[in-house]
Amino acid sequence: MTIDFGFAEEQRALAATARELFEKESPPSRLRAVWEGAERDPRVWKTMADVGLVGVMIAEEFGGMGGDEVDMALVLEEVGRAALPEPLAEVAVAARALDDADLLRGIAAGDVVAVISAAELAPDADLAQIAIVDDIAHRTFSAGRVPSLDHGRRLFRVTPTGDGTPVAPTGARVAWATACVLNGVSMRLLEMSIEHAKERMQFGVPIGSFQAVKHKLAAGHAVLTAARAAAHHAAYGLAHGSDDIAVAVVEAVAAHELINRDALQVHAGIGFTWEHDLHLWLKRGIALAGTLDAPAHRARLAQRLFEEDADA
Amino acid sequence: MDLTYTPEQEAFRAEVRAWLLANVPRLDPPDTREAFEEHRAWEHRLFEAGYAGLSWPSSYGGRGAGVVEQAIFDEEYLLADGPERVNVVGHKLMAPTLFEHGTEEQKQGWLEPMLRGDEIWSQGFSEPDAGSDLAGIRCRAALDGDEFVVNGQKIWTSYGAFADWIFALVRTGPSASRHGGITFLAVDMSSPGVEARPIVQLDGHAGFAEVFFTDARVPAANVIGAVDDGWNVAMTTLAAERDSPARPAARYARDLRDLARIARARDLDTDPVVRDALGALAARAESYRLVTLQTLTQLQRGEALGFEASVTKLLWSELERDIFELGVRLLGPYADTPGEVVGDVTEWQNRYWYARAATIYAGTSEIQRNIIAERVLGLPR
Fold first, then answer.
1. What is the CATH number of the domain that holds B186?
2. What is the pLDDT of residues B53-65, one digit of tens each?
3. B280 CB within 8 Å of a chain A CB
4. How many beta-carbon pairs below 8 A join chains A and B?
5. What SS3 state is found at B220?
6. pLDDT, average across residues B189-218
């Protein structure tokens, strides 16, 4: 079928597998434990690798699934929906940039962790054997922990201590993957808000029956639909040689800003407590959206508009 | 996922582009009978050239091509700056409704004359007291032998002043039954007892009309779907109206290029605030285009347009409004005398006010949000 902008059955099935696994292995209670400082459980990472999630974009000859960004897009949304502590998105993108057979085998099997330093920081770099900094892969580096507001991830400043090997450019893929994960965070925030609006009673009725509440959630759903379409399209582009991710970034951030604001507003008092899980996703979203530098991408799109107009 | 066009589709695009370049006329707005008839002649011309009903089966006068070909044509038509399509209500609303709910005889009787431009259609849904609350309609139809006798009023009827047919929602059961007791009826506007009065819009155009029915007699065979089941039939019409097939995304790319031109003319093209706003709108225009590709995918798979059509409507209408609102801000002191910046004042004013209407017609943004909240997100009514 031509102009088929939808996912295949297998791609949806893979995302469903990821969702089930994350719900089982990384429920909100585990995320809370991570917030309290729990160590990484290597078994969880190994489990993700065993079902193939780490190696979706690694060639079959190296133990991966041989897929591309389109296969990975829905999985990345699940990473965001679960606010997964593990750097699955970053490792998957790092693997896409590497061509060393042994490394790729190790990554697909879950034995090697390769991370990318983006916006000057890399998650879980203390557990990584490979760190990509400025598109150079390093095997020797130091990793200094940087405190972050989102305690659900562990961030490090990576300083290479030896020579590295240049790899394929990673910037566009990191931004795209982050946009996908951010969309997943937005999806979860919207889901939580919808549930809350159905259950929370005021004036004798669920607050979700009020148009003032309905309209916020409906608006969030609409912009998120557009943002996901943009990220899915960027996935198709990356899989076919285009690294144009500006629209995916701008739309993911725009949708998230609206949904982040309204999710707390709809939850109101209970959402402002430490006890409620909402803030775990609010903070992950703010952290991810910030790294995307949407204003720079908006400026890029405007520049393109002026250039098109000059050409016309 | 495959976003490539086939060589045949690329060839079709080239053929359409060349034909439009050679044939697109410049017509006055269809505000007078004379201008309207010129538009009708153009519709006939499109039919003769094989560009009407591209995705319809040839047995109904169509070309038997796919929805992708239709989308390609709509995009090229827009880029060629073709005249507004005075039978858009027929092609994009009545036809999908007939394909879904019409009898074979109705399809045979109405579709080809529609494509030929012989019969121009209008839509009779809204009434003075039934706008957003569409189920509150009061226009009545009472069965008398094998005819319905229709009495009441419709309003905001696009092309109503000159159209040949109107499809109307009429009450055939008690008002208390709300969504029940409504029937979807096609009425020949030349019937005795049907009178259309033009309404002048705030931009000066006679764009729509109010239509009065006084003991108008309509054959019972003109009911689409079952008597008293018209609400169900209208859902198909409304989904078609809200969704993207009616709204090629290419128009927004063009509108944005015009904004860039205005910004340049006003020496605002290096202003970072202006650039930020333009970049945000460019992203929204592109993501809207991608949502239309999702719809195209659904249509190709034979899936019906559901309540998600309200998402599409919300996206395009608010995008369109925001583009033109930024346009007016960019014009600044020239907002009242835009000719010095945009050239054709009439054209600019038409597009600006049409954009302001976008969040109202085909169901207001507020109604779309209600539908999304209740039908898609499952929030309580």
1. 2.40.110.10
2. 999 999 999 999 9
3. yes
4. 174
5. helix
6. 94
